Amino acid sequence: MKWNLRLAAANRGIWKASELQRSLAERGLVISAGKMSGLWSGQPISIKLADLEVICAVLGCEIGELLIPQPENVPAPGQAERHAAQATGTGADTRADTRADTRADTRAGTGTGAGDRTAPKVVPRRPDGRSLPPE
Which intervals of the chain are annotated as region Disordered (predicted)? Predict the structure, then answer.
């Protein structure tokens, strides 16, 4: 999804984030300067539906004008696992092999037991910037 707040506001003569912030506050949605800056100039990671409703009411627009679908960014069926493996640099098989190797080392006596456990690998972020959950 593409966040299109700035263009939607400009189409209605609102050129500054502070102008929109005041209009939103008049409708009961008080937004901090930091959050407003993120909404105005960035792509929010999350936004409450109630906040979207107020923004649409202030701008007199539909949600489809603020959130523009980008289906080309969605992997095709069967591509999702490969896409995720490429994004993280590992696949599910690699993680399973690593766990099996660790268990084998512990059973063979090459490790020192619970104190020998290595820290989990740092997993890169997803293409959309969000971090992945731990294994």
Answer: 69-135
Distance of CA 45 to the CA centre of its chain: 5
Q: How is the chain split into domains, by residue range?
A: 2-71
Mean pLDDT of 25-32: 95
- CB 75, CB 81: distance < 8 Å: no
DSSP output for 12-27 = TT--SHHHHHHHHHHT
Question: pLDDT of 46-81, one tens digit each?
Answer: 899 999 999 999 999 999 999 999 989 888 887 766
| Domain made up of 2-71: CATH architecture | Orthogonal Bundle (1.10)
- Tell me how far apart the alpha carbons of residues 115 and 111 are, in angstroms, rounded to a whole number: 9
CB contact at 8 A, 80 and 74: no
